[in-house]
Amino acid sequence: MGTSTAGRSWLHAFHVDGFGLILEVLASCVTPCISTGYIRGYIRKENGYVTIFQAAWGPGTNYLTDSNPIKKAVMTPDVVYNKYRRQSLIILLCAFAAFALTIVAVIDETWDDPQTEEQTESISSAKVFEFEKVDDLTRDSSVQTLLQNGHTAATVTFLDETYFEPFTVWLDLYAKLRTGRVLFVFVPNDRSHDKAKLALEKLALEVYSQTSVLVNLKSDTANHLDKWNAHNLWKLRMQVLRQLLDSFSHMDFILSDVDAIWLKDPAAPGGIFNQHETSPDIVVSRGTYPHECAVSFEDNDQTAPITACLGLALFRNTPSVHRLLADVETMLPSKHNDDQKSLNCVLTEQYTRIGEASEAEDGSVLSQFQILSGEITGTLQLRILPYSQVTRICDEEILSTDATVAHCYVHPVEEHEHNKTGDKKMENFERFGFIDRMRSNQDGQLILPHSETFVTGEYEEHEAYAISLRPKLKLERGPIAYHGQSTLCVCPKCGSASFYGELYRMTHDGKSWPNENNPVQNLGLRPWKKALTWRRVDWQSRSDWRKFVDSESIALIRDPKERLLSVYRDKVACGAHKASKDRFVNDLIGLSGATYRRSPTRGFGSRCLNLDEFVQVLYEVHAQGKQQLLNRHLRPQHLLCFLHASPDQWAHVIEAKDPNAACILEAVVFGEPIREGDECALSVDHANPFELEEVLAPLEERMLDAITKEEYEVLSPYLVDTGDQSSSFIVDASK
């Protein structure tokens, strides 16, 4: 017989020397069940500490989350003993009960087959780990386990809001390589953390199964730095890098700037980090700064320095590297916290060069230094890569070269122009083709769950009314309308004001809608009632959908992105107050599960979102499969007009800008068109003319592509101009 959900118990197992002996024996007995998936994890003892888990049992359940403090505690054995000795009997009984129920569950044929341990591991192997401090990261045993994945190196990058958009491009192209290595991302504050988390979860994780570790350095920056700026970032990343090398002794670390675009994997077998028989302690890209601490010179030309550039650098976990980073940290204050300058100057001013720098066949510069620092003596080998492998001077042909990484430097056009802003980087990415490359790969599409093909009443109470007008035209909110065997459908924000305005003129002897203060779409208003008789029906009231294909019908649609843009401008965007905006925005955010944070720059008044936030929140709704619950203004059109009948079953599927729209409407309503020629177009009005201009960021642009992908698949054959569905767009009130 089956066991009820209420009958599933929590298994608490505690292990300390002596105290947990009986439970340890019991756990050994239960262990075979773990492989079936019915009990997952109970104890982990490492380095004298006991990790205590609450492990839910039952098929398909898994509450083992190291990052969830509610489900985990780490204690010393004596604390565990003092805390739990009185509950030992209860714990033991619960454990036996759980074991007995597990046996029942295993033989119960009504239970679905559980996942195997191997399947579970593969499903949960990719994730985003989050930490609030570097110390928390380095002490976490789950990260230690994570890094034992067969790779000997991990990638590290640092990010702030200035470079968030370049980061999304870098992340996409990095993740496309599917290196399998763990990516560490360090950010300075909560806002950067939230943006980075979104990118890592929605792009790197969902699309490429890229495991990442995200660390918020807010507390570290507060403790060690006066304020956050580029110089402090340089100082902090040297400290963090040294902590990583100290804590994960079996791992090497690749430091990469977010504007150093990975075209190939530099650490792959045969890659630029592994092309030589020797394994230098440090492999770095080539630069020219700082001139005064040049490691070497191009062709012995004293005006062409060669320096170690930290835009891309591999630090092997060797004693020499540990010593170097400690010396770099010591020198940082005297070099304005400039880590690249400090590293080169430590090598050339504090260490002794062994012989002359030599050039390898691939153009790399090889140097060796004698370390005489404190009690440490030894040698450090440095390899500086050629520009052909990590390009600094880029042009439009960069993607056709053999370069592994493109770390493009662009000279300022004007003398005092700042060329290291996020906007400048994005301009260069566009120019060099990186953004097109990001979009072109099919693997890069964001994948969302397909919506239901039919929405039932369990999701929403579909209030609808049937109304009669001359000649017996019945309309149903939802937005189906029908009269006799003729059917109309107008989705919200598809030109409904123009459509219903034309319908009113047709059925009221050419008169225009008289109530300027109320929308013509509101069929309950008095001007409509003069010609209507109300009758309440429900959404499923029409019973003759089987004969629908043989009847006269028209559905009004709109380009999906244009429609969402219209909703955004009218009901979501900041800059124009509407009484209904608060409720609309609150409902959307509530459905997504996101948290609204008012920006100080927005002031007071109605709630609003900027364009990126709007797309992010809408994406969250779609990613959770809740698009059928969206307000009808945001609900995809195939979940509105085409719930009961697909577009190819409708006689006419048109846009409001169709030059024959009004004549087609007349033919559907009256059986034949009355007007001809130029009079057949609808008069399209724009209800919200306030000025606004925004451009979607690359990540949100791809989210919008994913949100509308299914809708375009349904509607594309009927759109007047589908255009480039993946291109960015600007909020322009004139369109």
From TrEMBL:
A Gene Ontology molecular function term of the record: sulfotransferase activity
Domain Nucleotide-diphospho-sugar transferase: 195-397
InterPro entries: Nucl-diP-sugar_transferase, Sulfotransferase
Record keyword Transmembrane present: yes
Keywords: Membrane, Transmembrane, Transmembrane helix
Membrane-crossing residue ranges in chain numbering: 20-39, 89-107
A GO CC term attached to the entry: membrane
Name of the protein described by the UniProt record: Nucleotide-diphospho-sugar transferase domain-containing protein
